[in-house]
Design goal:
single chain, alpha/beta, four-stranded antiparallel β-sheet, globular
């Protein structure tokens, strides 16, 4: 007799070796991550064809599913948990958080409400307090635990929209935006693309933004900021995704407060500078803002995904993200869904809590400082090899240029082909650049030395002025 689906699933559930085997595969992957190629080989990418199959008619054994995933999936990963992944701003993962995540995976909690998960509600409440004290934000600051800084900025801007319109007698939840009084959006031309996305999704319209020019590092020019008023939403950033630069929060924050404008800070990776004493000058004045977006999964090294919105005006945040229904009985403490766009949500707070507890205040400070030191090491090493560094390395971002746009792109292509490390490209002040973003606790001095060697090999392959030029890489 063919087993029923329930019998099939119970067999998997009771297959303890299956779960031990999964753990074994994960640990083998983790051990190899320190030495394996950082980007998948061409063979591994070709192997992904193994997934191009029709949905099976019959239930499949879990062991075979796992085997397929490890055989064809693991090799086609980017090795983000190793020491030489410098693409985008992608952090590593603190071990205690990975282990905690395993346990919480078996809990399978839904963080929407206290009554659905008392433990998640309590951890969210605890971490809200930890973050407020760590970033020295106003007492009572609210935190929402979302997927990343895009979602966090979306929530912060939604809170601002609610408050700025209510001040003008307009309840945006009920009346919407058609016919609403105006809200001004002021931000810089270097705002992160996710900020522009949030502006569009919230119905402000990117054409209504009053764009402020920036200096050579990407910082807002304070004397170019238009007069602010109580209808204005000013969006600043702590950590430009290319240069890593920070705005003058002391000056701009004071101006905004005097005008009763709302300030949102996109501090996706950069807000963490605040926990490292030697870097805290970068974030001076952030406490004057009204809302903040910050990631766990970048410089703090929580596993994916983990973003946080922080908001001084708790009422505005929960009103903007409100929901109600006859079957939804609010808890006496914290219901996570009033702080995020989603209702159902995984228990990502477990990893954030575990990461912060594992590192402790001192460990967080040391980790953040470590990322900065390794970034300076990359910059110095590459400069000694004849590369130009186009930014002031104030935090963990390094922008590399080699002689011409074409030569820079060729070096990048060679570096990517070697797979010793992985970096992406960008455009900075009209020049093609290579972005090196140091984000992992794993990255050692040795990793940086290997990375510099890889750049040297790439430079030699490309040749200098007058040397043999490879065809331009598209
Ligand atoms: C990464 C980044 C974002 C987007 O964050 P996600 O976590 O990917 O949603 C926004 N702003 C800045 C400055 C970033 O570096």
């Amino acid at each position: 007799m063919t087993p029923t689906i329930q019998q099939h699933l119970f067999r998997d559930r009771n297959d303890e070796p299956l779960f031990h085997h999964a753990a074994r595969m994960a640990l083998d992957y983790s051990a190899a991550a320190l030495t394996r190629n950082v980007y998948p080989t061409d063979a591994a990418l070709a192997g992904l064809a193994a997934f191009d199959e029709d949905i099976p008619q019959e239930p499949q054994p879990a062991a075979a599913i796992l085997e397929q995933l490890h055989t064809y999936g693991s090799p086609a990963t980017c090795t983000i948990t190793g020491g030489r992944y410098f693409g985008f701003v992608n952090g590593g993962a603190v071990p205690a958080a990975l282990a905690a995540k395993w346990l919480a995976d078996f809990w399978d909690q839904n963080s929407a409400m206290e009554v659905i998960s008392p433990v998640c509600a309590r951890l969210e409440q605890v971490v809200e307090g930890w973050l407020t004290s760590l970033f020295e934000l106003p007492r009572g600051t609210a935190a929402g635990f979302v997927s990343g800084s895009f979602a966090a900025t979306f929530c912060g801007l939604a809170a601002a929209r609610y408050r700025l319109l209510l001040r003008q007698g307009w309840d945006v939840n009920a009346k919407g935006l058609f016919g609403a009084p105006p809200v001004r959006i002021v931000t810089c031309v270097q705002a992160h693309s996710t900020v522009v996305k949030a502006i569009s999704l919230l119905g402000f319209g990117s054409e209504h933004v009053e764009w402020v020019p920036v200096d050579d590092q990407g910082r807002i020019l304070p004397d170019q900021v238009p007069p602010l008023d109580e209808r204005t939403l000013l969006i600043l950033q702590a950590g430009n995704v290319n240069s890593g630069c920070y705005e003058n929060f002391v000056l701009l924050g004071a101006q905004a407060r005097a005008a009763n404008a709302w300030v949102h800070i996109d501090g996706a990776f950069g807000l963490w500078a605040h926990v490292a004493p030697a870097l805290r000058h970068l974030t001076a004045g952030i406490g004057q803002a009204d809302s903040w977006a910050v990631d766990g999964h970048k410089t703090l090294n929580t596993p994916y995904d983990c973003g946080i919105v922080l908001c001084r005006d708790r009422q505005a945040l929960t009103a903007a993200l409100h929901m109600s229904g006859s079957y939804l009985v609010p808890g006496s403490n914290r219901d996570g869904m009033f702080y995020t766009p989603e209702m159902s949500r995984r228990a990502r707070i477990v990893e954030l809590w575990a990461t912060m507890k594992s590192l402790g205040h001192r460990g967080m400070a040391e980790l953040i400082q470590h990322l900065h030191e390794r970034a300076k090491q990359v910059a110095a090493g590459l400069q000694a090899e004849g590369f130009a560094i186009l930014n002031e390395v104030v935090f963990n971002q390094v922008l590399v240029f080699f002689e011409t746009d074409a030569a820079t792109q060729q070096v990048l292509a060679h570096v990517q082909q070697q797979r010793v490390c992985w970096c992406g490209g960008s455009v900075w002040q009209g020049k093609k650049v290579i972005r090196v973003s140091v984000c992992s606790w794993v990255t050692s001095e040795e990793d940086i030395a290997l990375t510099v060697n890889s750049f040297r090999a790439a430079r030699l392959a490309v040749g200098t002025h007058g040397g043999p030029q490879l065809p331009e890489v598209a």
